[in-house]
Design goal:
7 helices, about 120 residues, mainly alpha
């Protein structure tokens, strides 16, 4: 707090969404005072506060496509789940709509990253 840095959830540094190839820089996990106030400050409705708990890692997951996210995507593929009906969407749905995720090309980016890694069978545990 003295540095004006906060976590969106106390377990953010230990969350499965922080394990990515390449690694997510630890310096990107904290949020600044302005973002903290926008997400958790006075006047933010309780439902929004609840949805913002852990939100920073969802933001980073859209950039770094961590292993946990790719594993969920591989499960969706194996189960035949459409983008709006699978584990990936459920992970993001408290914060993002399907349209917002599609506008960020999430599924295309995951396909590309998986291909570069050799597919679902090559994901690290």
């Amino acid at each position: 707090m003295a540095d004006g840095l906060y976590l969106s959830h106390g377990d953010d540094p230990y969350n499965q969404l922080t394990t990515a190839v390449p690694p997510i820089p630890a310096s990107e996990i904290p949020i600044d005072q302005a973002k903290f106030n926008a997400w958790f400050g006075p006047g933010v409705p309780d439902a929004d506060v609840d949805n913002n708990v852990g939100r920073r890692l969802l933001e980073l997951a859209l950039i770094y496509l961590p292993t946990y996210l790719l594993q969920r995507y591989c499960n969706d593929i194996a189960d035949g789940n459409a983008p709006g009906a699978g584990q990936v969407f459920n992970l993001f749905s408290p914060v993002y709509t399907l349209a917002e995720l599609e506008a960020q090309f999430l599924w295309i980016k995951m396909d590309n990253k998986l291909a570069s890694m050799g597919g679902c069978a090559q994901l690290p545990p």
